[in-house]
């Protein structure tokens, strides 16, 4: 049985990841500011704001002291505030950076200290394809996701071979956060530019995390795995995506 820590596991990708690892027999701890609406066996909620490094350190220490090890960490907690670059406020931007980027750095650092001492461990995180393009109305969010990819490379360089480090960059995923910010028409427009013709389900991203934490993926480190249904493959998706989707009857 592995000891797994997932931040932001009360909903969306984090919840799906926690459920996937728990279903495999692992002991999972959910670091989130609120509990999940649905209880999953072998998943324990620890009320934690990942922007508060002292709270994160306390939670990680509790998990480690309870089991003597931490095997896998998935730094997944993230927020977004849909605003144009001329309307972003300093308070909102700081909160996005504190949660999305510094929240990964703080959690990874706290867990890595135990992993390095033990000589093994896996650090994973949720980045985004938004790190690779100018995506309107999410400038601060996009910047934090690019920062996660940079953290991934740096942690891998410094902590290998003891600690494996990988980030996953999803494209459009049908999470509560996405559903809260997008109308049905906007969701259809996104689907139209994705070659796969749809959003991903959170469970599909969770499967990727589970694989990356497996023995079969040990040689993968310092890398970013993009899971986007082909959305970022090239100009085909942006210029001709709508026409292709309409031709194939996907709308």
TrEMBL record:
Keywords, in A-Z order: Oxidoreductase
One of the record's GO molecular function terms: oxidoreductase activity, acting on the CH-OH group of donors, NAD or NADP as acceptor
InterPro entries (alphabetical): NAD(P)-bd_dom_sf, Sc_DH/Rdtase_CS, SDR_fam
Family statement: Belongs to the short-chain dehydrogenases/reductases (SDR) family.
Protein name: 3-ketoacyl-ACP reductase
PANTHER family noted in UniProt: SHORT-CHAIN DEHYDROGENASES/REDUCTASES FAMILY MEMBER
Cleavable signal peptide: none
